[in-house]
Amino acid sequence: MRRRSLVTAGLLLPLAARVVSAAPAATPVTPALIDAATKEGKVTYYTAMDLSVAEPMARTFEAKYPGIKVTVERSGAERVFSRIGQEMGSKIYRVDVVNSSDAAHFIFWKRQGWLAPFVSTEMARDLPAEMLDADGLFCNQRTHLSAIAYNTKLIPPEDAPKGFMDLLQPKYAGKLVKGHPGYSGTIMTATQQIARELGWSYFEKLAKQKVLQVQSATEPPKRLEAGERGVAVDGSDYLFWMAKERGLPIEVVLAVEGTPQISNPMGIFKSSPNPNAARLLVSWIMSGEGQSFIVNLSGQYPANTQVKPKPGRPVLSQVKTFKEDPAAVEQQADQIKAQYAKYFKV
Amino acid sequence: MTAKAPRLFDVSRPVLIAVAALLAILIALPMGWLIVTSFSTKDGQATLGNFVTLFTDPSFLDPLLATLLLSVSVSVICCAVAAPMGWLVARTDMPLSRTVRTLVMASLVTPPFVGAVAWEMLAAPNSGLLNQLWRLITGAPDDEALFDIYTFEGLIFAIACYTFPYVFILVANALDRMPGELEDASSMLGARTWATARRITVPLALPTLLAGALVAFLQTLNQFGSPAILAIPAGFHTLTTKIWSLFQFPPKPELASAAALPLLVLTVALLRAQSLVLGRRGYAVLGGKYGAPRLIRLGPWRWPAVGLALFVLSLPLFLPYAALLNTAFSKVSSQLITPQTFTLHNVVFTFGELSSTLPALQNTFVLATATATVGGLLALLIAYIVARRAVVGHRVLAFLATAPLAIPGIVLGVGLFLAYTRPPLTLYGTLWILLIAFVTIELPAAYQQLGSAFHSVHPELEEAGRMLGATRLRTLKDITAPLLRSAAIATWCFVFVGVIRELSAAVILFTSETKVLSVLIFDLKESGDVGAIAVLSLTMVILTTVVIVIANRIGGSVRLTSRVAG
Lengths: 346, 566
Prior knowledge:
The complex is a heterodimer.
Chain A: H1 7-18, H2 31-40, E1 42-47, H3 51-64, E2 69-74, H4 77-89, E3 97-99, H5 104-112, E4 115-116, H6 121-126, E5 138-145, E6 148-151, E7 176-178, H7 185-198, H8 200-206, E8 212-213, H9 219-226, E9 231-232, H10 237-245, E10 250-253, E11 259-269, H11 275-286, H12 288-298, E12 301-302, E13 321-322, H13 326-344
Parallel strand pairs in A: 1-2, 1-3, 7-8, 7-9, 11-13
Antiparallel strand pairs in A: 3-11, 4-11, 5-11, 5-12, 6-9, 6-10
Chain B: H1 12-38, H2 49-56, H3 58-91, H4 97-107, H5 112-123, H6 129-138, H7 152-161, H8 164-177, H9 180-188, H10 193-221, H11 225-234, H12 239-245, H13 253-279, H14 302-328, H15 345-353, H16 357-387, H17 394-402, H18 409-420, H19 431-455, H20 459-467, H21 472-501, H22 506-509, H23 517-527, H24 530-555
Helix pairs in contact in B: 1-13, 1-17, 1-18, 2-3, 2-13, 3-7, 3-8, 3-10, 4-14, 5-7, 5-11, 5-14, 7-11, 8-10, 9-10, 10-13, 12-13, 13-18, 14-24, 15-24, 16-17, 16-19, 16-21, 19-21, 20-21, 21-24, 23-24
């Protein structure tokens, strides 16, 4: 998976070409850093990751570094983006560490000069180059997919869709649930990829299938679990897998056309009120320990090469994925939202 | 009587000026910015473009029309349900009528957005508990549903559930006060029960019903939470959710302001209409003392009537709370709790892992206490000045204190956002801006309650104090305050409860550090964490109920009237 990574083509190269690369020297996690972080005593982590993963991860960090309280501010990545924009515009400096499922946000934040460079020793050693911003302003925390999935109690496996085009069949009308690109970064990223690969006409037709429209990419898995709809058009794949592993009747479909791939960059804000705790949190999340925690609990694909992906999950390099293109998402975001609202009415 | 008498020192005039100025700033600043912004381009040039967009772009026009249709439908349904209910409770010998009254009041404690989430659990087409039950009984196939809450009709229903209590209270109170003699006269002249009802009772109650319809219309017009929860999955926007969506990045405050203005104008116009309608109510109670209204005997219909009332109450109260309890303690929200599926996971997650829970509880508690105290004192001061006509110009105060009634929560939110994200007072991001919002929102109700309380304290008592040489403030402290104690406590609790349920202004004004409970619940809805929502909603309602019970103990009955925050 090291080779095929995402961030390479789309996100980092165009930027690296534009600015003179100035990766900061790698920072070790020293007792002095831990002391300074403990003195700050808290760190605020804005993320789009599902609470069932983000909160236990925060508690684990707190157990490792007693005296530092992690506040998780979770909402859909597009709302995280709005919130940060609004707070920065009003000179409210709250965010320490941010992690988005819409990699395009980091292009914007980098251009605004809002990010602080930071690379830990472990990150410098264990992250493939394409997982790190050339200027060390952010790194990819983990990768997931926006997958199709279905509830086997409602849809027998022989009736299950094989890919996106199948979802347009009349038999799926009224049985679909999907997230919204205006709230979710995963869905925003996926929508750009699907529209590029299958055309906007695909969404125009999909909108006529009486889709249950939810907001975050974390909600379709929960609707599927509850049996509210038989098929999820999109959604964070790790939540489908986690539900399946809990014994719920859920199967993941890797679409024949290809599956949208989502990187989840993470960075530290320059205006961070707790810069040391922020650095400590980022280095821990990117360390073997932090990455293992994410992988063991959720099975998302790690960025750290020292950590093996979760057994039993599809091997990322063997999944037919759509190419991620954050630069295009950054340019098209408003247009994507408007086009989407035109078809889906919200 | 007092204004002209010379005094050595009386602080009433400076107090009046200060209070009037404060109120003017509270209201005029956000509304001024709202109006200015709605006529501005992004760069601050004057334009009518925002309104052109508003009335021509289908993505604005559709929500506008949907909102109007929604409001009309809800107010019709509310009247259709509340009028017979109110009549049964007030004018018939229906058993349990006191209990029914209390329970309708209790349903008002539920924030409408919590009710909407609970109704998703009950009536989502496939996972909804009621639909599952229906399929179980009838053997209908998996993809058939009796109810679908994710429709326009579903939204009408969910809003009506939590709006009809307002109409009910108005109607029941009016029927309580209606003189029995007119009806007696009618029946003595030979009219049968139904003819009397048709020719006497209904015409007398009609103005109240019309006022109730307007209240329901306004509540729906300005409601944010329920549409945000039910309309978006159903694939449409109302005006309030559209305004909210305009705060997505990059925020478009110009368009949001323009979209907020119709809400403001419509609300002002309808309140004006309401006061005209209610102004006519007086003729029902002209002339002397009347006997208590005569109760109509329902005979064999007594128990069906109770059944009907309890059925209506199951919609806002019994069923939603059963669903919330089920979700709170069940592994999968769409399955009924059994010993195998019972879990404390949601409680442990909400209070043990979710890092926003405690800050949100704390913020909510601080804001509710502060708003109740500041707002209560302000309302007390205004009510005193107005009731005692303490200074020339007191009417201005009465007007200013009730004016926020005409400002929908989300409109106030937008206005305050515009006013306090710029110098000189950059309050956005602090609890102060939320305090200002909540005080403004709660002031009219608090003022109305305390105002009527002041009318029950005769001025003679104060005049005696002043004749004995006490200043006005001293009189207030030693004589009036003790007499008003219970009303003041009731008002305090009323405001406290109102703040806890407020969502529509808070959702515009919160920042991550100033998140309140209602906003946290709303955020959890976005990610679909219904277990945590159920736990937090129940916590919120328990907290609210405790406050109301204490209020009832200390301060007599708390009247839940006027406005809903949602």
